[in-house]
Every structure is written in C-alpha cells, then in structure tokens.
Amino acid sequence: MHLNGWKGEEMITALAGGVGAAKFLQGLVQVVPEKEVTVIVNTGDDIDLYGLHISPDLDIVMYTLAGIVNEEKGWGIRGDTFHCLETLRKYGQETWFNLGDIDLATHVHRTNLIKSGLTLLEATSRLCQALRLKVKVLPMTNYRFTTKIATDKGLVHFQEYLVKRGAQDRVMRIEFEGIEEAQPAPGVVESILGSDVVVVCPSNPIVSIGPILSVKNVRTALRETKARVAAISPIVGGRPIKGPADKLMQGLGLEVSAYSVARLYQDFLDTFIIDVVDRAERRAIEGLGIQVIETNTIMKTLEDKVQLARVVLERG
Amino acid sequence: MHLNGWKGEEMITALAGGVGAAKFLQGLVQVVPEKEVTVIVNTGDDIDLYGLHISPDLDIVMYTLAGIVNEEKGWGIRGDTFHCLETLRKYGQETWFNLGDIDLATHVHRTNLIKSGLTLLEATSRLCQALRLKVKVLPMTNYRFTTKIATDKGLVHFQEYLVKRGAQDRVMRIEFEGIEEAQPAPGVVESILGSDVVVVCPSNPIVSIGPILSVKNVRTALRETKARVAAISPIVGGRPIKGPADKLMQGLGLEVSAYSVARLYQDFLDTFIIDVVDRAERRAIEGLGIQVIETNTIMKTLEDKVQLARVVLERG
Fold first, then answer.
1. Homologous superfamily of the A12-45+135-149+178-313 domain (CATH)
2. What single DSSP character describes residue A179?
C-alpha cells in the first residue's frame, strides 16, 4: 500500500481508550505492519469485580485486534455466553457489568498472573501473545489508577457512572485516584519519544486520553518527542460518536466541540484530524498553531478505518 | 415418615467426602428435616487453580443437596458449559480439572469472599444460603489443609493424582499438609459432641474421612460424644463403589474390605452398615466391638438413598 510521504519501518505509537480507538487501530494495522505499532492504553477504567482485575480498554483493544470482539455490542466477545454471571447474580452479587464466560477467562488469567507477581504490562503481554497479536499493547501504568466521577449523587467509579448508572448523573468533577504514585509502564515514555508518529485515537479526551496524559512524564514526552503528533477528533458535529464525552466535557465547563478537544491537546499536538462536518472550526483550531486535516472520521466499515489510518499517516 | 426408635428433633452430624456422601445425604434429607442435619466436609481436596479456591467436596455436597449436580458425570452442574475453561486453555493454562461456567461462579465468589476476609466456613454458609440449603454445611477446617499423595512419580496434590494422572501411579504414602496448624472450623467439634447421631458417610476412608479425622480434636470428639456413631462402608465386595480407595488402601498396606474400614474407625464406631454381599465379614467386624447392620448400600435410585438413610437412623 502506498502512503504519501510514508517511508515505511517507521514506529507508530497510539494513545487509546476503548471502542473508537480499537476501530481506528483495526484500520491502522491494515496500513502498516503490526510490529511497528505500540498502543498505550488507558487503565483508569480498570475495576475489581468479584475479586477479578478487569481492564475494559485493554480488553476492547486486544479483542478487536484479535478479531473476536462483539462489534454489535461494542464490548465483550462475539458469541459469548453469560452463565457464570447469571450464577453470580443468583449468589446475590451485583451484575451490572457484563462479563461473558469467554471474556471471564481473560480476567481470571490476568488476575492470577498479577497475583503470581507479574505486572499488568507483563500480564497484558502474555494475553496478547496468546491472542497472537504483534502490536505491542502497553497499559499506561502498572500502578492502580482509578478514574472517579464526582456527580450530584456522589463520587463513583467511572464504570459505575457509565454502566451501572447509565451516565445519567450530573458530572461535577473528575478525580484520578492514584495519580500521585502512578509511574508510566516501562516502554510508555520510550515509545512516545522513539516513534515517528504518535496518534491520539478518537477516544474520550476526559476519561480515556485524559488519564494517559496525566501519568507522570507522558505529557512532557508528547511535548518533547520529535514524532509528529496527530489526533483524531472524537467529537463530530458537536457530539461524541459514542460514549459520554459530552456530559463529561460539559461537567467540566468545556464546550463540546472539536476545537475544545484541540485546546486540551494544544501543547503537544501537530496535526488534528477533524470531520468534514466540523469544517467551520478549522480556522479556530489552526489559530492554536495546529495543522488541521478534514476527512470522514466516522468509522462504519473497514474501508472507513483504513482510509482514516491513511490520512493520519500521510504527511499533510 | 415413621422411623423405629427415632424420636424426631434429634440432631444428626454427617462426616462427608464427595459423591458417595452427597448421595447418602440426598436420602437423609428425605427422612429428617434439613435443619437437623450438619455436614462436616473434607477440605483436603481443596485446590487453587487460576487463583481460584476450589473445594470439590463442599461443592459436590452443596450441588447435590441443591438438586443441580450433574449426576451422570458425578461432578459439576447439570447443563453447564465450558467456555471459560476452553479459553483458559487457549491462554496456555493447564485445564485437566473440569470447571464449568456456572460452577466457576462458585469458585469466583468463594475466592472473593475469602479475599474480603471471610473464613471458608462463612463463605460456604453464604453459598448455601444462596442455594437455599437448610442443611448446615461446615468445612472441616478454615485452615489450608492439603492432601498429597506420594507416588512412584513424586509427591502430588490429591486432585493431580486423581484427575490429572487418573490414579495410575503407585501410591506409597499420604501426606496431610497443614495438619499441624489446622483447627477444626467453629461448630465441627460442637456438632459432633451435641448430636444424637453421627454418620460417617460412605466416603473414601483414606482421603475423604481420613483428613476430617486428622483435624485436631475431631477424633477425640467422636470417641467422647454420647451420639450413636454409625458408618456406612464405602467398600462393597472388596472394591470401592467409586474412586481410588482401593489403590490408596493398598498403597498403605491395608486390605481392601469393609472389615479394614471398620478397623480404621474402630476407636469411635458404634454401628457399621455393610452391604449384604459382605455378610462374611460380619463376625470379624463384631469382633472389634462394633454392631453390624447388613443392607443394600448401593445407591442407584432415590429410594435406595432413602432406604439407606432409614437404616442408619433406626436403632438396630
């Protein structure tokens, strides 16, 4: 595949949250060899349920790249069953977080690997190996880092805000628990500094990319890297493509727009890919000193994903 | 139901291993109210797999009494699926121990309850409550107690000897790891001392009943209790009804016979229920000072189980 200005054997680092990022990465690995790609994944959504370590963003990225994700639902594994979860419900457990039986093996195995002394990074690497992924998937940190949402109903885990309570509560503040201690996982800063291109995937800027940026030294590395840093706007036509980014941005007093996202990334961003529908924001974003590329950013088909990856990689 | 010599509202304590015990208990709860029954269950077979605390004998007893056991297989839950286990295999894990998806909920929940500070007894009580059991099910101990088999191939966990290696190795010795520390679970000694009848179920005398008897103060309680202590022979016609009792007994230099089992229980046993086919051993057993009752001990139907329970409870 020919890419304008693309030399090949360049290293690419992607900052990723959940579904939007996973879709983009699906396209990316069609355009460049998997082994040239490192993905730094948000772990602020990680949650302990039933004593199991669940990493929703790591899982959606791994499952998507492994081709086993349930694309209809946007989470979990295609064809999975829920027999264990149904039984946990009978045992009086809350079961608002959907865990399929196949999916569960990931959590059981990860939890056991960590219990036996491996870091989250090492456990992730084992899982990726078993799923035959050649992309390097790095959790942003090996430390416990928990995104909590302060709402009018109280301070809750992000998953509780999103899944259990359906993102219905008014957002007042966002807290990153563990932010003081969290060191970037080995390879995170190195891959940002050593890459030719860094891509900020079209993920929630507040609770997906935000946590990654808040891990020590990550933001500095993004500012200092010689890599071209590009981001794809997760806001199209004043709304997130998926998820509660609008509610979270509003809660923080931010306008819900591509421009608003560009401002959040302003200090390290070279190129911002916005949807054609947001053409009107181009000037304002360029005014931040950021190059703007307009394209179709809605990824419905594999072709959409591939096209978007090409746009990101081709030098504008 | 009329039982000769049975006064009603008597307390019954059963010492139990796996399948044989569970079948007998199924009959017992048809004959007496569940709430009069306490079951002390072997936990020497407990094993940690994938970081989960698995208690095979507790589970078979609970599942059988809850009416959900897979009777054909003799383990696990009827209609269970194995999607999680199949995935753990793909993740490179050994999967010789069969764990169904429904079954898994028990292990996940138990492990989590223990992790959160509950004892095995308390966790078991929660599970029993959820399964709506009125029988009191007690693990023999809250402590880690592990039955290991020294074979010509090395020292292995009992489950590894039985399930993984198919009980094919030559048995040389049996070790109870944790025997020094293991205190009886709260209620174990009390229920033996406070019962009217203690029944030693037709379980493996070496690795099911043996561990229970080896827990501190249990054997003394059996000797000192005013309860009538009855046992049902797990050996019929010189062979165990199920399981490797013959190989284990032979490995310890014991004859495989009802008489041989009676000798193991001689110091605390009042009544021994043997199968009619073992009639020839009656005299020898009586010679140990033990009353002998002959009956059909093979439990194929519910009627068989009920009949056996009646024989045990009726005063000879």
1. CofD-like domains (3.40.50.10680)
2. T
